């Protein structure tokens, strides 16, 4: 699937999915635990959430990768799994999507501020680059940059 965004939107209004975090909480995600780790630890639950949005009629679904940058994953000691977590998150959504639904990978903030000197621009760039590589390997149709 190599449709451009212009091509996707040429089919009229596109319906996107909803909140993933609340769905994970209903499936037992403990408060304070990163849902992104479920891509490897509880993949069947991630797949169920993605499938629920496809069944509800979404034209585009996102991925469970909002907090899967190197810098964000450092907080849980999982930064070495950045590629694996992002690739798995995309593949799970792609599995649910089938041929009709597009999958846009979710890229969220790191929790660090450049202007406060918490990280360098190079560290930030590398964190997102590594995340994007995993998303590409999983076959994402696009990337949604969220809350930045």
Question: Would you mind describing this structure in some detail?
Answer:
The protein has a three-stranded parallel beta sheet with strand order 1-2-3. It is globular, with a radius of gyration of 15 Å. 45% of the residues lie in helices and 8% in strands. It has seven helices and three strands. The chain has helices at 5-9, 21-26, 38-41, 43-55, 70-74, 82-97, 121-138; strands at residues 60-61, 102-107, 142-145. Helix 4 (43-55) packs parallel to helix 6 (82-97) and helix 6 (82-97) packs parallel to helix 7 (121-138). Helix 7 (121-138) links the parallel strand 2 and strand 3.
Structure summary:
This protein is mainly alpha-helical.
What key attributes describe this structure?
about 150 residues; mainly alpha; TIM Barrel; 3 strands; about 45% helix; globular
Helix content: 40-55%
According to CATH, the homologous superfamily is Homocysteine-binding-like domain
By CATH, the architecture is named Alpha-Beta Barrel
Number of strands: 3
Write the layout of secondary structure elements.
Elements: H1 5-9, H2 21-26, H3 38-41, H4 43-55, E1 60-61, H5 70-74, H6 82-97, E2 102-107, H7 121-138, E3 142-145
Parallel strand pairs: 1-2, 2-3
């Amino acid at each position: 699937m190599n449709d451009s965004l212009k091509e996707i939107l040429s089919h009229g209004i596109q319906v996107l999915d909803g909140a993933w975090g609340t769905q994970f909480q209903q499936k037992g995600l403990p408060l304070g635990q990163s849902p992104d780790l479920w891509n490897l630890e509880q993949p069947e639950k991630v797949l169920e959430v993605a499938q629920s949005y496809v069944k509800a009629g979404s034209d585009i679904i996102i991925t469970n990768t909002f907090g899967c940058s190197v810098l964000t994953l450092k907080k849980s000691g999982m930064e070495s799994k950045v590629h694996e977590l992002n690739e798995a998150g995309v593949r799970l959504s792609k599995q649910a999507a089938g041929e009709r639904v597009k999958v846009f990978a979710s890229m969220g903030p790191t929790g660090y501020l450049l202007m406060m000197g918490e990280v360098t621009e190079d560290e930030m760039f590398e964190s997102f680059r590594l995340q994007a590589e995993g998303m590409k390997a999983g076959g994402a149709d696009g990337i949604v940059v969220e809350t930045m």
